[in-house]
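Friendly challenge for the regulars: who can give me the C-alpha cells for this chain first? No prize, just bragging rights.
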Amino acid sequence: MFTNFSFLQKPDPIYRLFLQLQGFRANTYWETASEILEKETFILPEINVEWEDLKRLSMPVYLRLGNRLERFFSFIIQESQTYEMIAENVQIVAQKVTLGELDFIVRNVQTNEIIHVELGGKLYLYDLEIGGELERWIGPNRSDSLLTKLNRLQEFQFPLLHQPQTQIQLAAWQLKQEAIQQQICFKVRMFLPESLSGYMPPYISAEHIRGYYITLPKFQSSRFEDFQYFLPEKQDWIVDPKYGEVWFTHKQIIPLIEKSLLTMQSPMVWVKKSEKDFETIFIVFW
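First reply, four minutes later:
Bragging rights claimed.
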C-alpha cells in the first residue's frame, strides 16, 4: 500500500498468506462487543495448519484486508472438524435492491446448531480529544470508528436475518430463522497514544493493546535513530513484525513515511529494536 517492498527477502505468496492467517488467529476477541450487542461470542475452532496448506486457499493478491479476513475465517471453518460452512457473504435482495449481506451461516456438526456469524476484524487508535469512551476508538485514517461498527451490527447486520426476503433465501437451504442462533466474532488490535503508555482505557484489557502511535516530528527525534524499520502493506498489518526479513534505517524510512502522510494515510511501522525485540507503531497525519 505504501511501498513496493516485501518484508520477505524471497517473496513467497503462500508463506505470506500463512503469516497473515497466523496473525488473524492471534488477534484477541473483544468480549465487550458481545455484551453490547447481546450476542454470544463465536470462538474460532483450533486447527492444525502448515504453510503449505494455504495452497488450498484462493486469495487475490490485492484483496483488501477486511475481505481477506473473511477468507481466513472461511478457511478455518472448512479445515475444522467442528463446523461446516452452509453459506457465506449471503446477499439479501428484494426487488433488485440489495438490502445487505449476512457474513456466514455455519453448522456445528457435533450439536447440529445453526449459527449466523458476523465477523469484525478491526484495528483502532485511541484519541483522547474525542468525547465518549467508545467514540474515541477510530481507524488510523479517521475514516471509521468502533462505535460506528457496533451501531451497524446492532441496527442493520443482525436484524437483517429477520427480514422477510431473508426467510425466502433461508428456505432454499431448508433453514428456519427461528432455529438460527446469532453470534459475533469480533477480533481487535488497539493502539494508544505514546503519552498514555501504561494507561488502560475502559472496555478493553492489556491483551488488546498492540502498540502506540505518534506524529512524524516525534518519530524524527534522535531516540529512534538506532533502530530498524519497515512499512508493511495494509494486508500485512496483522502479521507479527518478528517475521520481517527486510529492514531500513531511520534515515531511509522517513521519506517513505512522508510520502504516505502526504496522501492522508497513517502508515503502520514495524520497529526492530534488537533480534528479539519488535514493536508495532503508527505514524499519524493528524
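The chain is about 25% helix and 30% strand. The radius of gyration is 20 Å. Your move, everyone else.
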